[in-house]
Amino acid sequence: MDFNFKLKHMKSIFIIPMLLAEFSLAQSAKLPSANNLKPPCPDAEIVETEIKADYTEVEYLCNGISIEVGYDENNNIIYTERAAAIPAEVQKKINDKLAKRYEGWSVDESELVEMPDTAFYKFELMKGGIEENVYFSLDGKYYKPHNIPVSETWTVKNLSSANKNKTGPYNFLNPDKVFELPEILREISGLTMISDNEFFVIQDEIGAVFKYDLKHEKVTGMTRFGADGDYEDIAVNKNHVYILRSDGTIFSFNYLNFNGKAEQTIVPANSTNIEGLFFDSENAVFLMASKSEPVGGNENVRNVYEMDENGLHVAKINLEIGISEINQQLLRKYPGIVTDSYDFQFNPSAIAVHPKTGEKYILSASNRLLAVFNENKLTDIFPLPSEIYYKPEGLAFAENGDLYISSEGMKNGFVNGQILWFKHR
Fold first, then answer.
1. H or E stretch including 83?
2. Could you give the domains of the chain?
């Protein structure tokens, strides 16, 4: 199977069931106390509670009707979702739009989603085993949901004020373009650029590499290389693609001539949770970033490992990241936003080297931070607001220095997986 395998042949891909619980190492949503919850109706019965990254979802029964409610860590309601009762004239408008743009798709479910400042309809569509969510306003127009701001110290507003007299290589508060990804890539966890307009991308539950075309904004091919698992990042060296699993196993194959069997190498890194992988062509080495502290080591340290391109079975430490240093720089750079009462985590989810400067850019989905290291010294730190970045997990540079950040979407479907593009200034 090669990358000419078209999307229409993806019927064998099945939609992975939602995880029962998703935990973040930092700033995970706290389970609300039942006494402090504001239920959607009197005498509501709690059916199920799920702790997810940055929020908690509770399913209730109200007079036999299922209602899902999302709470932030302060027990505030951030959304409710229930079966939609759509007026006939609005339903007709929606049906006409679906028939025109989504011919051959069937409607699996439709829900009414209500947030503090808006409400909209969510339609779950199915075709050939592929799921797609489509959104409409209450009057039947197409609608694009915005990211749900979670409890975060920084926002677009206060960062805009703090940065008003500062310049940098990228404007992280204003992406030049946001690419909305299809449902199959909602949980995008890594990307690497293979041409001016194309990426290889992975999502963290399916053992497949997808080709995504920026110009046409669609998936144009896929290769299945292994069983489902926890895949976190992807890199390319010459004609070979390398996929990192969180346990430190790297899968590799020639993507121009794939024989159906990927080679596996277990990298002997002193970590149990690894998420970042990058091939540094300038130095002919792979860089691999650990999300957690070294086994038996300092809990304040996160390591970046280095492996020779021809020796993945040998890893040495390339960079030690000190979380306390990250916090100190945040305090110095953003004194009106960050105080010494905060203890932010920095758990690397991606790493990439700037093609012009040689700086290492390291992303942390935990607390949404992007750190820059020059000659292995921390030189800058950028907070990323949740209004723009729901769960940033991937980094890639174009040859001209443009930066791409991939962000995982919400499991309940309001926020798609995204690729955010930033022109180099």
1. strand 77-83
2. 7-136 (3.10.450.360), 156-422 (2.120.10.30)
Residue of 2 and 118 predicted with greater confidence: 118
With contact defined as beta carbons under 8 Å apart, do 278 and 305 qualify? Answer: no
Q: What are phi and psi of 415, to 5 degrees?
A: -115, 125
CA distance 219 to 181: 8
- Are 201 and 220 within 8 A, CB to CB? no
| Residue whose tokens read 């109706």 | 41
- For residue 188, the number of C-alpha atoms closer than 13 Å in the C-beta half-sphere is 35
pLDDT of 7 reads 39
Specify the pLDDT at position 209: 96
| Residue that the structure tokens 């992807």 belong to | 234
Note the Cα 416 to chain centre separation in Å.
9
Per-residue pLDDT of 189-218, as tens digits, reads 999 999 999 999 999 889 999 999 999 999
- pLDDT above 50: residue 32: no
For residue 31, pLDDT over 50 is answered with: no
AA letter at 40: P
